[in-house]
Amino acid sequence: MDKWEDNKAWFLVLPAFIIVAFSGIIPLMTVVNYSLQDIFGPGQAVFVGTEWFKEMLSNNRLHDALWRQFIFSGLVLLIEIPLGIIIALAMPKRGWGVSASLVILALPLVIPWNVIGTIWIIFTRPDIGLFGVWINGLDLLEVPFDHTAKPIYAWITLMAMEVWHWTPLVALLAYAGLRAIPEAYYQAAKIDGASAWATFLYIQLPKMRGVLTIAVLLRWMDSFLIYAEPFALTGGGPGNTTTFLSIYLVKLATMQFDLGPAAAFSIIYFLIVLLFSFAFYQALLNVGRGDKA
User: Fold this and answer.
1) Which residue among 126, 143, 224, 237 is the one 20 to 30 A from 89 at the CA level?
2) Do residues 242 and 68 lie in contact, with contact meaning Cβ atoms separated by under 8 Å?
């Protein structure tokens, strides 16, 4: 009877679960339907089976977009995770500085994603942008800095924008993990004469492992699904050098109006995201088991 009483709480979330499942399954089944047909117009379609999947899997432009996506997401993790930890370690632990630091860190996170791209377009413009005018005024570059002119400049601007926008999330998660460490651990480390590096390596980092795994999961998946910021900033250019998977999918579906290939590609995209989500979830579970042990 007690077990039944405990499980009754599931009935409270059942309506929300049904609504979410309903709103997710119907669009997914529509996409699956489109991926198996060649659509000529309203009510005009021919069943083609897995033809679009074969075409997409052998599509060189998709392969290029996938490699760009992996490189971008990998760079995001390599920069944002260490930088977020450093910021969290430097934040004050008590006093008014804690509230001020948290508010300042949270500011980039509350700006709409499409506005972020516009901000950085203005910021890096070579004629009126603060950064663009400053960097070009130093006369250190052979070609004036303009993120629309050279791929390397586009990537630098895109990475700077992404790091500025999302590193605060990593820092806030890391800070929460640091604040959860009991003071007794630090006192024991001080008595043992442990250095700051030893304290970080053997106390702080292991205790932050759970929140850092969450940070890695969130940042990897969000960067893998990124669309609004690079589309507003570069539109996928110059050329196709910043055309990631999401931008390629939108161009395929809305600009070329290839609904069948776009639907097949979106399912492939979904399976890639699902695979990595599962892998990171398993890693999170293993970290949790390791902490309990």
Assistant:
1) 224
2) yes
Per the CB < 8 A criterion, the answer to whether 208 and 85 are in contact is yes
pTM: 0.83
Structural domain spans, the chain: 52-292
Is residue 74 within 8 A of residue 158, CB to CB? The reply is no
CATH code given to domain 52-292: 1.10.3720.10
If phi > 0 it is left, if psi is from -120 to 50 it is alpha, else beta; for residue 43 that is left
Mean pLDDT, residues 80-85 taken together: 94
Which residues are registered as beta bridge partners of 44? Answer: 41
170 CB contacts (<8 Å, ≥6 apart)?
Answer: 80, 81, 83, 84, 85, 215, 219
Q: Which residue has the higher pLDDT, 282 or 155?
A: 155
Task: Decide if 154 contacts 143 (C-beta within 8 A).
Answer: no
Write down the pLDDT at residue 85: 94
Place of tokens 């679009």: 52
* Contact yes or no for 78/254 (Cβ under 8 A): no
User: Average pLDDT in the 36-62 region?
Assistant: 80
